[in-house]
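Supplementary Text 2. Reproducibility record for the structural model of the 793-residue chain.

All settings were left at their defaults, and a single model was retained for analysis rather than an ensemble. We include the record here because the model underlies the residue-level annotations in Supplementary Table 4.
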Amino acid sequence: GTYTVSLNADMVLDETGDDCIDALVYRDVYSADEGKVCITFDLGGNILTVKRSQYSALQLYTGTTVKNGLLRVEGEDGVDVYGDVHIDNLSASKLSATTAYRGEYFDADTVVLSDWFSNGGQMVSQINNLICAGGVFCYNNSKLLVDSLNAQDRSTLLGDAVIIVNSDAVFDSVYVNHEEDAYIARYKDASLAINGDMVNSGKEVLNIGIVNEKATADNMTEAFPEIAEITPQTLLFKTAKKSVPAFVKIWQPAGASAENKALVTAIKDGGVYAVVKGTQPKPDETTADKITKLLLDESKVTIGTGKTATIHVTALTGDGDAVNRPQVTWSDSNTGIISIVSIDAANGNVTVKGVKAGKAKLTAKATDGSNRSVICNITVGSSIERIEITQKKNIKTIEGGKTLKLIAKLTPAKPVVNKLIWTSLNPEVAVVSSNGTVTGISEGTAKITAVPADSRYDATTQTASYEVTVTTSTKAKEVKNLKLTIGKKEYGNGAEIPAMAAGKSISLKAVTYDDAKKKNMSLGGNDVAFYSSDEQIVSVTPKGKVTAKAEGSATVTAVSMKNPAVRLTVKVNVYQAVKKITLNTSTRKVKKGGTGILTVAQFSPVNATDQRVSWTATGVDGNMKAGNVQAIEAAVLPAGKKISDLKDSDYKDIRTKALDTGKGERLVYRTLKATKKCVVTAVSVDGNKKATTTVISNGEVTGLTLKTTKTITGANGNYSVNIKAGKSITIKPVITAEYGADKTLIWSSDNDMITVNNGKITVGKTAPSGTKAVVSANDLNANCKLTINVTVQ
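Retained model, structure tokens:
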């Protein structure tokens, strides 16, 4: 009744011909005791590809489990799931899930599809990560429980269907048939983003239920929405479309009183908030604007077939900060070169696997309505399957001080990455350089090995080896002591040389103290050989050229070839130097007195060791001298803190004295003056790499006056004018304003017989002589006001 089928390599089942073998189909197979056969496919970390002909979906029935790998189904009709089916990772054109029995459910870890369908019965589907290039379609009491969901196309819910979202849900648009009581439900801590116009007519467009407990098969009953509780002032969804109705109905649990019913209202920045009726929503300061830019930690990636790589995306927004949970969908160019095997939505990571040799484009696209996207170009090639070490003349014996060049023969001949790590297991006998050159040191036998330089690129775990016999050196000088020098600086045994940036090289010179001559004497390549304890961090040639490879520490040893017991070791620390910094915004417009956040959105390389940055700013007139008018002041915002946590004493003048931020810290600025250009400069402590942001501060209207004439009299904001019935006069105030101020004026009249429209005062034809009105104008911020006393002649 229960069987397990194991795979030890990628496999392709081609079922597109007439002799379809119906792999994985067990509809007509039964066991005597249970009435069904349960079969587990253990893929062992490999990919099982099933190719299906048109109108022939792969059918999976109750009792089927596919684990420890990726099931990829090729064919327009995808997969049909019936009842209890469990899959770790699935990729298909579409999936249809259904069952006729209560309590049966389909579960999976990561599912990558074009479209999702669930329909009828009591079907419950539980998915950790659901990625749909198309849409999600749920009908007739079907339940979909999702941790993280991305749907790029229009989705539909009909007939009491329910979507439960535990973490994040992103839809392009959603059609909900309200009359059939379809719901979208989510946990309180989830975020739900819906972009695009709501397609139903009327204002009751979308019903949203909020549940405050974990949904399980036990409480997924027909009365499921009854257990939900509404939480006022919870962010429900965002939309960039202005066509969203002003009010959208929220589904309420049975028995909720009218006073407690919540509504959501769309405010002008596109955010939609749940509020109790009659209250005004106040967005939290951390509410992000639309995504303005997407950055990848790697724009080009090379991997071997069967290997994986993880790419990270950073989303930047106009509010001056990075998005913690970037709302993006991931898709590839559908060439079959790579497959998406997992998505970490919370941290903005995607993991892809090389399927076959070729080039592919992996695209991250924002789903907040901004349409921002970024592409990673991925090259997949053959991995190293076998390494064989040879020598051109098959020489295996050398004299101390002599060299021998080894050759690594790779299978296939041209793998995607052909770099190897060479190691001597007996460095006191012979050492080997990073290109396979062996240098003999002392009498004995040394085993030289070669392995792939990066296991991420190469599938092989094989270690190839070559044995070299070394005879006593006849030319090496006898050495009693050793010292190493870099320039004029000497280093003894156990010393630590200056830290090196990855990619940099230095030359170590070996010297020995000559007692007779009372001075240091240089040693040549026949006298001393060098080797590294870790070639991946520090490589060294036998003659002492040291190259920093990657962040970390390694030791470099110099050994006398005449007296191998005489040796000296120094420590080399390697750090990732900053080569470039990118700020989260290049230009920022704020109102005078407003705040903004600046941060280094990306270091290049992303794993730069020292991520401290010094910040300075210019004054209003564009320079940094203290005597100039201060345009902004700034404060350091620690990780996990809000702007509201800062005190006035935290803000500093950064024109002449810089503020430093460390990893995870941000710079908050607030504007003090209206200015066209205040430049904030960030300089990396390591490498002096610079980036700038221009802050534009829009000011306010500071004065309103009128030029007096024979018709207009008065002063100090209080004026008078006489107008005949049926006549008009246009008032043109003199507006005094700071840079960038909005000079729009709001006009009003306290008498309907005397109207005003954008400064044009009109007296009605029937207005009696002596009729009076007060016409007023004020700026948008109500800082300045003028009144005009109008009398009808």
